[in-house]
Structures are given as structure tokens and as C-alpha cells.
Design brief:
By secondary structure, the chain is an all-alpha fold. It has one domain. It is built from two helices and no strands. Helix 1 runs antiparallel to helix 2. InterPro entries: SE1832-like. This is SE1832 family protein.
């Protein structure tokens, strides 16, 4: 998978997890695990964007 495809997949996952997080928060459950997943995805998205910039 090339970097741009990987980036799009990560963005899709990020949006999906955000939606799940909103549902979890609305039920009063602790969102800690999902927040960590979002932070991890944010770091990975930044890394991929940096790699794409360097490759251009």
C-alpha cells in the first residue's frame, strides 16, 4: 500500500473511532482506551504526512 492510501485509511479509522468515542461518552463509560487509539492515530498520520512531504 502506498503512503497516500495508507494515510486515507488512517483518516477513515480516525473518523470512525471519533464517532465511537462520542457514543461511549454519551453512555457515561470511560473513553480512555479510545482516546489512546486516537492519539496513536494522530501520531501515525503526522508521520505519514511528513514522509509524503519529504518524498515530494
Amino acid at each position: 500500500m502506498d503512503l497516500k492510501q495508507h494515510l486515507e485509511t488512517l483518516k477513515y479509522d480516525y473518523i470512525r473511532i471519533q464517532g465511537d468515542l462520542e457514543k461511549i461518552e454519551s453512555t457515561g463509560q470511560a473513553p480512555d482506551k479510545m482516546l489512546k487509539q486516537l492519539e496513536s492515530l494522530e501520531r501515525e498520520i503526522k508521520e505519514i504526512k511528513d514522509k509524503i512531504k519529504k518524498g515530494s
